[in-house]
Amino acid sequence: MVVLGGVTRLTRSGLSMTDWKFQWESPPLSDADWAREFDKYRRSPEFKLANASMTVEEYKFIFWMEYGHRMWGRGLGVFFALPLCGFLYNGWITKKLGARLASFFALGAGQGFIGWWMVKSGLELDCENPLNVPRVSPYRLATHLTGAFTIYTAMLWTTFSVLFPNGAGTFASPSVATERSVDAAARFAAVTSLRRKAFPLAGLIALTALSGAYVAGLDAGRAYNTFPLMDGKLVPDAYWADWSTKGWRNFFENDAAVQFDHRVLAFLTLASTTATHVSSRATSALLPKRALFFLNATMGLVSAQVILGVATLLYHVPVSLGSAHQANALLVFTSVVGLTHALGTKSASGLMTHTRGVKAAVTRGS
Questions:
Q1: pLDDT tens, position by position, 235-259
Q2: What's the number of CA atoms in the CB half-sphere (13 Å) around residue 74?
Q3: How far is CA 96 from CA 87, 100, 172, 197, 350, in A?
Q4: Burial status of residue 200 (CB atoms within 10 A of its CB: 0-12, 13-18, 19 or more)
Q5: How far is Cα 125 from Cα 131, in angstroms, rounded to an integer?
Q6: Residue 127 buriedness (CB in 10 A; 0-12 / 13-18 / 19+)
Q7: What's the CA gap between 360 and 46, in Å, rounded?
Q8: What would the mean pLDDT of 188-206 be, rounded to a whole number?
Q9: By the number of CB atoms within 10 A of the CB, which of 100, 156, 194, 358 ranks highest?
Q10: Three-state DSSP class for 230?
Q11: How far apart are CA 108 and CA 145, in angstroms?
């Protein structure tokens, strides 16, 4: 769903549907339906300023991209809600887990409203710059992407909690260790040390992803397509261009500032990940296997993300590389969430009471 949203944005399809309904939206099927839908799009600022020569046939592509994104979201809601109701009705999951899953469904429904709120901002003419090609508000796009990553992270964390309810709690602290106390103390110290680095690293990765949303919202990736310099300098002259008129908004609405900040955060993430990985090599044999797997995966995925980011920039953000960059960002997030969970100490109390009931139900069904 997140990747499809990225492709929709990269193909400039997000503003092709000029109205929105919470429930099912029937697609145009006849020539009359397409003419009516296209006529609504022709009244939009994007058509007038960017796509005035577009034909109905060309319009169909961007319409189906946006329509597919919307319907995929609705389909996910049904696919999520129906099994959840069944599991709750049959008592196959605890009330605590059921409440948590229901909150995910509510957040997903909210994403639909936020998505339309975002799209609506691009259907209005920019009064300050009436000749600019319409774009959605970068603030609203960042809100929409943050919501998507929040839901994904919460669901991923819950999945890990169900699959691995004890976290790293199997490693006792030295004060309670009774056998092999030296070995237990070393293991505990290794896990604690990595935990102290992993959680700040996860926050840095989240911040970098958020800065990428502003790059996407401003289409800033197409502004400075050289590396490592920007307009021939390490810090472009235009970095402070809007400071006198916009103040702090310069850092969120200025192409040069937004792209430069994203570059800095990306390489800070790479350096921090490398430092975390290297500093943990000496104690890698003492770490839980799951934590070590995710640590190595995070190192590899962050490296790949930087390479993808540079390639996407140099090739002027083609759909293929831009989509791969966003998809890999989700993999980086998956890996670092897996790492922090593997190093956690809290159990999944209240989530697993009915595990046997679920397994029994699945067994009977098969």
A1: 999 999 999 999 999 999 999 999 9
A2: 13
A3: 13, 6, 27, 30, 6
A4: exposed
A5: 9
A6: exposed
A7: 55
A8: 94
A9: 194
A10: strand
A11: 12
Query: What's the helix, strand, coil split of the chain in %, to 5?
Result: 70, 0, 30
Q: Give the distance between the most distant pair of CA atoms in the chain.
A: 79
Closest CA to 188 of 200, 164, 172, 203: 172
Report long-range pairs for 315-321 (Cβ below 8 Å, ≥24 apart): 315/225, 316/221, 316/222, 316/225, 317/10, 317/221, 317/222, 319/7, 319/10, 319/11
What's the average model confidence in pLDDT over 169-195? 69
List beta partners, residue 230. Answer: 233
Contact 321, 311 (CB under 8 A): yes
Structure tokens at 145: 């992407």
Which residues make Cβ contacts (< 8 Å) with residue 117, sequence separation at least 6?
Answer: 140
